[in-house]
Model the fold of this input.
Amino acid sequence: MVDPTGGPSAAAAGPRLAARPARLDGLVVGLVANPKKNAEPFLDAVGELLAAEHGAADVVRTRKTSITDPIPPATLDELVQRCDVVLIGVGDCGSCSAAAVADGIAFEAAGVPAAVICSDAFRMSADAMARVQGSPGYTYVTTPHPVAPLDAAGVRERARLALPELVGLLTDPVPAVAR
Done:
């Protein structure tokens, strides 16, 4: 996923982010899980919390078949059409963390705000992918490593703990008209 011979142009100044909504109430949230153990339950728990605590109207779920490959273009296009914001994860190894960041950057480029979740042990892989994609400094949410061996209660607790940061990445607390 990371090409050591290439990189972004010197002109890459930082992440290019999609416009954020002020709130999540009434919005459709996309959940893009990788096939790592507990990725889907983690994202499902976040989706439930977004509905209960932030008024998200609906959740659209998809599961990638590979931890390393980018999101398929047809899936990206479908989610761009159907979702207002997207959550991607859980990066619980180096390859899937890098792929999750690449996917988040792809959604941002398509105009959909994205929040990526990676375990904290793989910041180096996630940050390297952001640089290679021309978005150094791309912000994502970390959760303590590892996620895979957690039981259902542990997964829900991690989702609950990550929720405030995820909401912060997906929303703009200062509406454009107030600036």
